[in-house]
Amino acid sequence: MKRRNFLKKATVSGLSIVAVNSLLSCDTVANPAKQSIVPIKTAIIPIVIATWRVSNATAKAWEVLQDNGSSLDAVEQGCRLEEADVSNQSVGKGGLPDRDGNVTLDACIMNKEGNYGAVTSVQNITHVVSLARKVMEETPHVILTGNGAEKFAYEQGFEKENLLTDNAKKAWEIWKETAQYKPIINIENHDTIGMLAIDKKGDIAGACTTSGLSYKMAGRVGDSAIIGSGLFIDNEVGGATATGMGEEVLKTVASFLIVELMRQGKSPQEACEAAVKRVVKGSGERYKDFQVGFIALNKAGETGSYCIHEWFNYQIATENKNKNYKSNYYNKA
Ligand code: ASP
């Protein structure tokens, strides 16, 4: 999934709408007029939103919500669908591997009580979002990693699977030809399914699942499984989740930031924009080389979304507007 197509890919499901609205705008196209942010300002409950256009995943979650299922079940079921889709090279089975050729997955889940479970660097297990839920519900811990997480998965009856598909292996082999074993920072080749849902009872839950940065160093952990960074839920306020360069999201604890800003009265949209600005501010000029995007949902069912490319395009549009204004002014003078 090309990061520059971000805007057409985030999805929201609510009422009778199933994964049809483009929620998150994040295209790098030069024409800012093409940018579209469609935050939902009226309360829609139940609702599910996700990073990227993962229509099948949100439709699945929506089905659970319509059946009076919990938001926790909805986000888990939605994410599982994407984890099993081998055509998605940034989540679950079929994800691109690390630089040693091993597919390693990160995931987390958070419920209305503020409980959280996560797994990091897990090999051979497709449904890491469900494994994260098992950590939350069946252990006294909140994060399990690597071999320990995998061992726990087998104890819980998870199936051992080879996650490296032929396509992903081919892509890795091509990467190896020129990469000289260097982990690279880029804006492509990595994404996360972050999903937030409110059920008919009005309770919110969220989940995140990813294979992380492709060709990363072995053992690298991004934001997606880390509470407050890739995901945060507070049933009194709402939730937020992230996609993009995990290192930058981790440094700003951005999902927690967004929820706290909503607690202080900001709309989900305002909170997402503030978090993007915080990431940009902390990164100096580096923000041009990476992508970060957020979605948020408050308890009223209002949504927000924003990413760095939108911010960047907005700056360019404003600069151009000022330039035009100035040249018109000087022409008249
Ligand atoms: N946030 C993920 C990570 O850093 C990757 C992504 O969403 O693009 O692992």
What's the short version?
The protein has 333 residues and is of the alpha+beta class. The protein is built from nine helices and twelve strands. It has a single domain (3-331), classed as Glutamine Phosphoribosylpyrophosphate, subunit 1, domain 1 (4-Layer Sandwich), CATH 3.60.20.30.
Structural class: alpha+beta
* The CATH C-level class name: Alpha Beta
Coarse shape: globular
End-to-end separation in angstroms reads: 50 Å
Strand order of the largest sheet: 2-1-3-7-8-4-5-6
Rg from alpha-carbon coordinates: 19 Å
CATH superfamily: (Glycosyl)asparaginase
Bound molecules: aspartic acid
Q: Oligomer, anyone?
A: single chain
CATH topology: Glutamine Phosphoribosylpyrophosphate, subunit 1, domain 1
CATH architecture: 4-Layer Sandwich
Percentage of residues in DSSP E strands:
15-25%
Regions with pLDDT < 50 over 5+ consecutive residues?
A: 1-10, 13-37, 326-333
> What is the count of helical runs?
9
SSE string? EEEHHEEHEHHEEEEHHHEEH
Largest sheet: 8 strands, mixed
DSSP summary, beta strand count: 12
Mean pLDDT: 85
Number of domains: 1
Helix content: 25-40%
